[in-house]
Amino acid sequence: MPVAAALKDAVLAALVAFGLFGLMVGLHAVQGPTGALTVTTRLDTLAILVGVTFAGAFARALLFGREPIAPAWQFAKPLAQLKERIGPTFSAVLVPALLGFALIAPALFYNNRYLLDLSILVLTYVMLGWGLNIVVGLAGLLDLGYVAFYAVGAYSYALLAQHFGLSFWICLPLAGILAAFWGILLGFPVLRLRGDYLAIVTMAFGEIIRLVLLNWQSFTGGPNGITSIPRPSFFGIPFNNEEDGFAATFGLEFSSTHRIVFLYYVILALALLTNWVTLRLRRLPVGRAWEAMREDEIACRSLGINTTNTKLTAFAMGAMFGGIAGAFFATRQGFISPESFTFGESALVLAIVVLGGMGSQLGIAVAALVMLGGFEVLREFEQYRMLVFGLAMVVIMIWRPRGLVATRDPSLYLTDFKKSGP
Length: 422
Description:
It contains 17 helices and 2 strands. By secondary structure, it is an all-alpha fold. It has 2 domains: 3-67; 93-399, no CATH class. A two-stranded antiparallel sheet has the order 1-2. Strand 1 and strand 2 form a beta hairpin. Helix 4 packs antiparallel against helix 13, helix 5 packs across helix 6 (168-187) and helix 14 crosses helix 15 (361-377).
């Protein structure tokens, strides 16, 4: 492309960048000493963004013109061959490596409370991602209100533990059962809905649950939430500094980290249980029905599969794991309120499922680690971290539209076809 044409394209790109970032970055509202908001300018930052856009557009126009950029076209065949050669080996090595690291992480980060808490948070979202994967990845039902089951599980544990004095281990399955019940209730109204309409109804369901929790003050505490939620114990041994506490029982020096390590292994066990149950369900008729409905619901119905029961079981199983994760969240925090269960949580879990690769257990775990870890790495950038994070998500969706782990083995093979196939 001629230099003049490239310069013209670069100027247009710079003008677009100025229009986009002029108000978002160029102007900044800060709270003054009197409490009033004052507007300040950040022209230097705006100039940097516009200059980077101009330089990038000019270089692209000179090197590639206006054609779509395909920088990896000449490496496509070697990369495909390399992926085919080492792909199975890489997955076979990565899964045990991640599991081994998860098992020894408390020993590595024992003196770092921040990393332990971050690890617990990542595992919680891994479990939530695997639970939502049943609904979205396997059954193909777009659920934007998954946080509702998370909230049901959390409030179920908090209310049962406080009013009935039940232990964490008894409340945990009860919270999952109650969340599954609400999953079935959600499933009935959406049996005839698909696509965007299904997403809108599930999103509305999540908001209904949050508003009920917010306004039913006599039962849920309203905006004040529920405090003093009982902590779990180690087979009846509390984690305190008394004679009957965990440290004194096992002859250890008391440390508050003992409870954090115990919570870490609890959520690790719950996440692994979720993964194991999901993998087992895939091989059962109900799991194959989920995948058939995901591919083509009409063809699935024509084969005699009861799509009503298939949808309800998908919602119930996904909601159950979300409720169990919510119960763990409540006992870990010791305090819950409706602000913890907003639509943003549903969007984050859905983003983990989509970016990891719908239907891929390994991909979801990697995506949760990358996304939650990415949030913490970018925390130093303050207001810019969401911009950088959003840009990274756009790049991933462009270059890996099917997720980080775009492929997975089928749940079952046709043995005869596999033997006779090419």
